[in-house]
Amino acid sequence: MFKDIRFKNKHFKSYGRKYQGLKHGGNVGEAAKTYGQPEAGWLDLSTGISPWMYPIPDIPQQLWRTLPYQNEHFWRVIAEYYQVTPEIITAVAGSQGAIRQMPYLLEPESVAIPAIGYKEHQYSWERAGHRVCLYQSWGELENLLDQGEVTHCVVINPNNPSAEYVDNTVIEAIYRSVSGYLIIDEAFMDVDERCSFIPYLPKSMVANNRLIILRSVGKFFGLAGIRLGFALGCGELIESLRAAVYPWAVNSPALYIAECALSDVAWQQKQRLRIRDQESQLLTLLTSKLPRSCHIVSAGLFVSIFGPSDTLMPIYQQAVRHAILLREDRLLDQCMWLRVGLPGEQYNRLANFIEAL
Ligand SMILES: Cc1ncc(COP(=O)(O)O)c(C=O)c1O
Q1: How far is the CA of 159 from the centre of ligand 1 (A)?
Q2: Whether residue 157 has its Cβ less than 6 Å from ligand 1
Q3: How far apart are CA 51 and CA 241, in angstroms?
Q4: Which of 94, 125, 144, 273 could form a cystine bridge with 103, CB 3.0-4.6 A?
Q5: Per-residue confidence of the chain (357 residues) as pLDDT tens digits?
Q6: Residue 220 C-alpha to ligand 1 middle, in angstroms?
Q7: How far apart are CA 103 and CA 107, in angstroms?
């Protein structure tokens, strides 16, 4: 199942040369250029990054100078936050770091990936030479697994953009049927941990364990800029990931900030409350203003609107004229989705825009 290191090097080289990239939210510079508006003054709601960021503490000077060797206290804090043992945590440069690397560490196989979901999964597995089977529903995934069509499986929980939370009983059944790895992307789970699959991880190193859970420090803590995430799990793929990213893939200031943020329970509680409050306010407003042909869902840190393109595209374009950046993407059959991130302290600006639709 595991690749020889020479294969990995070959792939990494070609990936570096040919990289074109996918379109993502959060690129205000590009929006300003595309729509001929100055970069300052945009309200960027195109991502699911919290508008309230963890306040950056004073960073001890020596951290800028020293190499990032994670200390015991750091591991204890991170382990406590995720309720796991320190030995099964691997720090990566954003969960994206693991999403991109892991497929290259495995021999080409087949993998099931949600048809609607964070596109970097599909992109990364395909680039690493795997055969990707997209599933539209849990029924479709079940069929793929029952018929032995796929070796590995990716689940995004909650899904971005569909906002669907998957119950643990469903994931348990999937895990039982996957012969290879089950990778669960929980980048947006911090707002509501009830559906997290973390309790199913082993408590200590188990060489052949096939479960990997990805977590992000970027979304809930509003710290996407520090590029920090964690791969939780053990087993051979995690060992290969560690070998690929360690010793210094994550910088010392990022680790220090995470240590403060993940141990600050009072801030986390306040953050959950204000996210929940604004999410429901935004849902109520959007539901009252948008036609019934639109399906509006929320995963805490963002609201997604699914509907006909001739309803949603004009809203996107109107928002741009107000320097409000949403995220849009096409689906089949003249349908599309829009992401509306939480506006935080700029709620009234967004509300005025929506009221006037
Ligand atoms: C579902 C999902 N997973 C993972 C990521 C990567 O996030 P990060 O690398 O900041 O942890 C994103 C980014 O938008 C995402 O939407």
Answers
A1: 11
A2: no
A3: 31
A4: 125
A5: 666 544 444 444 444 445 568 989 999 999 999 998 899 999 999 999 999 999 999 999 999 999 998 789 999 999 999 999 999 999 999 999 999 999 999 999 999 999 999 999 999 999 999 999 999 999 999 999 999 999 999 999 999 999 999 999 999 999 999 999 999 999 999 999 999 999 999 988 888 899 999 999 999 999 999 999 999 999 999 999 999 998 999 999 999 999 999 999 999 999 999 999 999 999 999 999 999 999 999 999 999 999 999 999 999 999 999 999 999 999 988 999 999 999 999 999 999 999 999
A6: 11
A7: 8
255 lines ligand 1 (CB under 6 A): no
Q: Using a 6 Å cutoff on CB, does residue 114 contact ligand 1?
A: no
Strands across the sheet containing 295-298: 295-298, 302-308, 335-341, 327-330
Which of 53, 95, 217 to probe ligand 1 with, by most ligand atoms within 8 A of CB? 95
CA of 357 to the centre of ligand 1 (A): 31
> With a 6 A CB cut-off, is 213 part of the ligand 1 pocket?
no
Pick the CATH number of 22-52+266-355 from 3.40.50.1820, 3.90.1310.10, 3.30.420.40, 3.90.1150.10: 3.90.1150.10
61-263: which CATH number, 3.40.50.300, 1.10.10.60, 3.10.310.10, 3.40.640.10? 3.40.640.10
**Is any atom of ligand 1 closer than 6 Å to the C-beta of 160?**
yes
Q: Which amino acid is at 14?
A: S
- CA–CA distance, 298 with 161 (Å, rounded to integer): 9
Cα of 99 from ligand 1 centre, angstroms: 9
Which residues partner with 230 through β-bridges? 91, 215
Asked if residue 161 has a cis previous peptide bond (ω within 30° of 0), the answer is: yes
* Tokens (6 digits) for 140: 């479709």
Q: Is the CB of 218 under 6 A from ligand 1?
A: yes
In whole angstroms, what is the distance from residue 169 CA to residue 171 CA? 5
CA of 185 to the centre of ligand 1 (A): 8
For residue 184, give the H/E element and its range: strand 182-185
